[in-house]
Amino acid sequence: MSELSEQQSDKQNLDQKSSKHYRYLVFIGRFQPFHAGHKAVIDEALKRSDEVIMLIGSANLPRSLRNPFSVAERAAMIKGAYSEEEAARIHCVGLDDALYNDTRWLQYVQAGVKSVTGDLQTDIGLIGHSKDSSSYYLSLFPNWDSVSVPNYHNLSATPIRDSYLMGATPTPERTPESTRNVLDAFKQTDDYHQLHEEADFIDKYKRQWESAPYPPTFMTADALIVQSGHILLVERRSMPGRGLWALPGGFLNPKETLFDACIRELREETRLKVPEPVLRGSCHSQHTFDDPYRSARGRTITQAFYFQLKNDPKGLPKVKGGDDATKAFWLPLAELDAKMMFEDHYAIITKMVGL
């Protein structure tokens, strides 16, 4: 086939794809919050398909500055923006994150779609913006067509969310009435006031670095300790994440190695009753975790060290909270709860332990 014939064929396939009508179109996003740009995508999806599946990401996480709204609240924002007839064609499904494990995330997406369609062989397409993070996931499903929609007025949820948590009121130009109704109601809750306090803390925290020539990158070390099917955790005493469960750990001092920082922070926060030579000899593996959005404080990279302590008929070693920890405690692995975990610590645990 000549180059001209190939170009004509490609154009014909593109024209056919642009006019195709789908049984289902899938829109994946966090919608924190749902704004007019998201609505523009759904409007197009409703024209191009019988039904729309909204996979609402970052489900089953604690409220945070990056993820303040529950799946139910975001579903109310989405479906409330449409008539009863249109809303009946929109299916909202929570989608768990799987940081550091794309394969698991793809499984979650497939399961979410299948929960609506019944199978994965039905006429399915993915819809999203062509020049943002959705471009990445559109390429992960070669068996499904992708429908690209231009970014609506370059809207982003991040500035809307950040200003709202600092006390501002979202404008009608950027958010549907259904979103503003949910945000107005949420503003009256204790959860909002806690997030508002944390947003103010983070704002002041970041102002300390305003005069730096470049945004700082922080380095931390975390300890993942497992013995007899239990994991050692702490409850955070301070913001951000006050009251959440976390791995013991903290910032690297100027003149120490990452491993030494890990041991020091572990001792300071848990008072773990294990001799240091035994502890150092129990290190099984280590891994770097560097998701750009893992911390509200700024770009923070952590090195996690996984320790496997030998089973002991005397029981689990004694621990006691100290320094930045309200308490330290052993938790059965079966009772790990993503909704209680600070930042990406749940993802770190599942990655390193293999849960």
Automatic annotation (TrEMBL):
Enzyme nomenclature, EC number: 2.7.7.1, 3.6.1.-
CDD domains the UniProt entry points to: NUDIX_NadM_like (cd18873)
GO MF annotation terms: hydrolase activity; nicotinamide-nucleotide adenylyltransferase activity
Cofactor(s), names only, from the UniProt record: Mg(2+)
Nudix hydrolase domain ranges (all copies): 216-355
Record carries keyword Nucleotidyltransferase: yes
Key words of the record: Hydrolase, Nucleotidyltransferase, Transferase
InterPro entries reported for this sequence: Cyt_trans-like, NUDIX_hydrolase-like_dom_sf, NUDIX_hydrolase_CS, NUDIX_hydrolase_dom, Rossmann-like_a/b/a_fold
Name of protein: Bifunctional nicotinamide-nucleotide adenylyltransferase/Nudix hydroxylase
Organism from which the protein derives: Psychrobacter proteolyticus
